[in-house]
Automatic annotation (TrEMBL):
Pfam families: CENP-P. This is CENPP protein. Residues 6-33 form a coiled coil. It comes from Pygoscelis papua (Gentoo penguin). GO terms for biological process: CENP-A containing chromatin assembly. The lineage of its organism: Eukaryota, Metazoa, Chordata, Craniata, Vertebrata. Signal peptide: none annotated. Keywords: Coiled coil. GO terms for cellular component: chromosome, centromeric region; nucleus.
Length: 190
């Protein structure tokens, strides 16, 4: 009887240790998510968003509708960051040229995907016709920690040449995920 009671206690202890480990991981994840943007940056973004769309809405939408829409967009962004592993840490844009039917903006993005960090700089040329707006990426520059992997360097060069950001982010997400798996595996054998 003594052994069965000890086994029950050992099982309970192990169950509690696993629960503590899961809670600690959740806490670390939530801390990492909250450290990417300070409260001031979030408030400035919200105010900027409100100022931008105040002129566009002209009474068509109430502030509560805009707030709900902003919360929905934030939820979508959070989901995409968790799904892809890509987290943007900073973004800036500067209007370089603006005419009635043409706008050139310079964008700078930095972030990380799993354990790999990256920086992007590109110009976005927006041309407006009577019916539609088209956008073209020019002068794409990518800086990425690729270590000594020549395949990544070739991929980055090709992406810069073609200016295809969608392909870059898709490939980065997949590569960074497997890069992290390889890193953990090699650490295990050291």
């Amino acid at each position: 009887m003594d052994n069965s009671i000890c086994q029950v206690y050992e099982d309970e202890i192990q169950s509690l240790e696993e629960e503590i480990k899961l809670l600690a991981e959740k806490y670390e994840d939530s801390q990492q998510e909250s450290t990417f943007f300070s409260d001031e940056e979030i408030l400035m973004s919200i105010k900027s968003f409100q100022r931008e769309f105040q002129g566009q809405s002209k009474g068509h939408e109430s502030p509560s509708d805009l707030k709900a829409q902003l919360e929905s967009l934030e939820t979508d962004l959070s989901f995409l960051m968790k799904f892809t592993g890509i987290q943007f840490t900073s973004h800036s844009k500067k209007t370089m040229e603006k005419t009635t039917n043409r706008t050139v903006r310079k964008h700078r993005l930095s972030g990380n995907c799993h354990s790999l960090s990256f920086q992007l700089e590109f110009q976005l040329l927006e041309m407006q016709n009577k019916e539609s707006v088209s956008a073209v990426i020019t002068d794409l520059s990518i800086i990425m920690e690729s270590g000594e992997d020549s395949d990544v360097s070739k991929f980055v060069s090709s992406t810069e040449e073609h200016g295809n950001l969608l392909t870059f982010f898709r490939s980065l997400s997949s590569y960074a995920e497997w890069y992290e798996h390889r890193r953990c595996t090699f650490l295990h054998f050291k």
